[in-house]
Amino acid sequence: MWADNETSDDLLGFKVHADLIVDVINDNDVLPVTIGVFGDWGSGKSSILKIVEKELIGDDKDGFKDGTLVLYFNGWVFEGYDDAKAALLESIIEKFAKHKKLGPKVKNETVKLFKSVKWMRLMGLGFKKIAIPAASAYLTGGVSLIPYLLNEFSQIDPTELANKLKGDEAESFLSSIIKKDEADEITMVREFRDDFKKMLDKSKIEKLVVIIDDLDRCTPDRLIENLEAIKLFLNVDKTAFVIGADPRIVRHAIELRYKTDGIENSSDVESRNERIVSDYLEKLIQVPYYLPKLTDNEVETYLSLLFCQKELGSDFNKVLEAFCTARENNRYDVFGLGDIDSILKPEEKSKLTNSVSIIASLAPIITEGLKGNPRQIKRFLNTYSLRDRLVRVAKIADFKMDILAKLMVLEYSSQSLFRQIYEWQSSQKGESKELKELESLASKNSIEIIKEKYSADWGTDKTIKWLNAEPKLTDIDLRDYYWITRDQLTTSISGSSLVSPHIRSLVKKLIEPVAGTALTRTVANEVKDKLSEGDYETLISLLEKELTKTPEKTEIHEAFIELMSQKCPDVIDAYTRVINKVDNKKIPFSLAQNFKLIESKNVEVKKLYKVFKKDSQIFNAINGDN
């Protein structure tokens, strides 16, 4: 099994990206700078950031080398904090305050900056969380209260003050004392920057590098709070911020915070929101860097290195060194087991024998099916490894792991086609005549015949490549292979951990209660023709799973109905599958009106009217007038 953690060991050849980022950071002429390392969920952003950190500080435990101080900050760790912005600011200041060499030099400055952050928390969080407890502490003898409040409270009789801080009136009382004046906030920000610059100058460091990872795991509010903290440093000399995130998640969070609503032309509102998001990002991120997806050769190399890492243990270091050396001279070809044959011991070669036969054949279809995503590849291999163990424990004879691997690629990349093969083979003693014909047609590149006789999904470039890949499944009894994967046939995609945060948040958005036209806008602006084929299939599969679990939940039905209304592909088939599986008596009969309303938009929905069970209220409600 392989751990799904970020690492500074470069198995992806990503050091070149890290070196580029370090080169920008080391250019004093571009400071201050904010660099965005952008990529899809699981694309390797965290590993690149770890390599950047290692390149800058080496093995220095205090994060300080050659005049550069580095702070690695995980935004997700502070998800539960009441103010993520304050958590980030306090972490940076604390790095200076507790540093053995720098701390004594900047003691006064850090004390002042800590007080400024407390004041910002007070201004931004509301009075119940900060001011009221602080005021109560003042009454009981505490003297650590924010100086402004100390000054104001000292002018009020203690008995009167105690009464004012009781009950529901406390918040309005404190509101009258603390005025959130824009000019005051601007002054506060300017003073914070000035004080922070004084601290940097007094510390005599050459530059401060703050690496912020996992922003895309945060809720939209927390993500924005982190970005707002970064904005405080945009004009502070000697600073570099490196942010790793999925740009789709960041854009979504900005849009939620700053979007404009209105009854005017929806395209105008959408265009305005897009400009707001783009302007915000352009001002915040001076250097955006988008990670490329892995190529076929890079995936094959990555697979080889992962298997070596698993089988060789501590001896893997020599393989990694050979890989790094080879990459300096050749960035394009596969670095495979043949390249390390001379440095492997006979027993090490024997350990890798079983893996060699499947790596080359798997690479092209894994690249296509899993979009060359390192995290998905690693988790795919973990599931593959677990099922390999199950095969041995169950003592299944004549089981071919390369056949399992090929089926798993389809399982991860196209659940609907994977299930279709299951249905075909289950009624034909494991050997599907349809699959045999599909492989034959694919080998002749008869794509139009495939689309006409089966479906457009079977005729995509991705699926044709899968059908033509070795091993061929013609005349193979697939029952044992589907028995091994049977845990996934009633769920969504193989392991919810493979679902990106973007798709998970989108599913949640679709099935939560909404008002007005919000659901319609979400489907139009974020789903229809907006997702990749793989992400869209995952979305539909997750919705199908949710509805199977809770068929009584109106909101999930409404999500399906809206998708049907806008003629999104495969939705009616997915909805039909659920209706055939669940207790129809649990389906709200009030949905009949929803179906009738979208008939004119998509006449295909009428097919569903006869699918509902005749003993259910929904069937009678829909068909009563027919």
Automatic annotation (TrEMBL):
It comes from Dyadobacter helix. Residues 15-390 form the KAP NTPase domain. It comes from the Bacteria. InterPro entries: KAP_P-loop, NTPase_KAP_P-loop, P-loop_NTPase. This is KAP NTPase domain-containing protein.
